[in-house]
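User: Alkanal monooxygenase, Bifidobacterium minimum:
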Amino acid sequence: MASAEEQIAAIIDANKSKPSVARPGDMEFGIMSVSDVTRDPVSGVTPSEGQRLTDSLDEAVHAEQAGFDVYAIGEHHNPPFWSSSPTTFLAAVAARTTRLTVSTSTTLITTNDPVRLAEEYSVLQHIAQGRVDLMLGRGNTAPVYPWFGKDIREGLPLALENYNLLHRLWHEDVVDWKGQYRTPLQGFTSIPRPLDDVPPFVWHGSIRTPEIAEQAAFYGNGFFANGIFWPEDHFRRLVDLYRERFEHWGHGTRRQAVVGVAAQVYVRRNSQDAIREFRPYFDESPVYKGGPSLETMMRETPLLVGSPQQIIDRVLHQHEIYGDYARQMFFVDHAGLPASSVLEQMDMLGSEVLPVLRREFASLRSPDAVRTPTHADMVKARYGDGQPRQPRPNANRGDNVTGTSPYVDTDSSVKVSLPDL
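Assistant: Predicted structure for Alkanal monooxygenase:
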């Protein structure tokens, strides 16, 4: 089995000057949720977990109907949240939609086993017929680490190592692996293989960590600046670092780096109504409560509360901060907002904000500004005009161990270490 240093060298060699799979195209707009189950401070009602889950499913399906391109759900393993199994939920969303990309606003790369991530998101990718990508992150709930046998003090190296393994599991039929944070793998094949043997597009999300921006750039993946709750200039520096390193690693120019941005939104016909209606939700939010005022957060962070035109102006301002970017996500269901209001928000954004943003960004963006890579883009980048690979397993030999050649077309010259018994 290769040493850690040899594995790292192999990863660097495999990624050296790998061209970007991103192609010029239009921006995407989406809805994101963190799945909080929160008391409505206006009505005093706290929904059940089941009701909140059902409402979220309806909202995800409605996102497509309202004209959005993406719906993303977070991952949590503690109250007051419900989304402990994002892939199960997103499979249901995919089954009820036809064009919507299903994604995550966080997939925990730290406390999840990379083997399970590889398997679960490959299954989801097949169910959704390629309408899948995912955003990896460390989350913000410290007790989760020991619940899953991890140490939060090792959070960053754990995140980096786990993605290194996940990447290999999706790109190699048979993997030998020895790292610091999980048991070794010997002659291991992750099943099923990704759709067309092309993994989902991966975003790396971070609110403060340059090493995550570096990893995103190294692999030629996307970087998501989840700017909610933080000053915009803070994220501009992370995005600039990512673009610089993306170019350094030979994946394309700075402009070809794939950037995503988030904002929390509450919109009404006039700004006075928007601020008046949203204020109780802001004041009682566990995130905002006791901190800077609503007006301060609106001024310093991408918390967008106002009329359709004010929302449009603030989103267009993101282009001045980040330059051309590929995906804009809106956070609309936080802090106990009732499901009926969430649907109203999505309808108003879809009818009065998105058409203007699509038109304005089309005129602002440079001709070579990239879109988020689709499954078709990545298949084209790998196979050109050829037929995609469709892995077919060799016959079961009776021992359920795949060894060096699990598939009919697996390279038989690849040598691996079989498990020690």
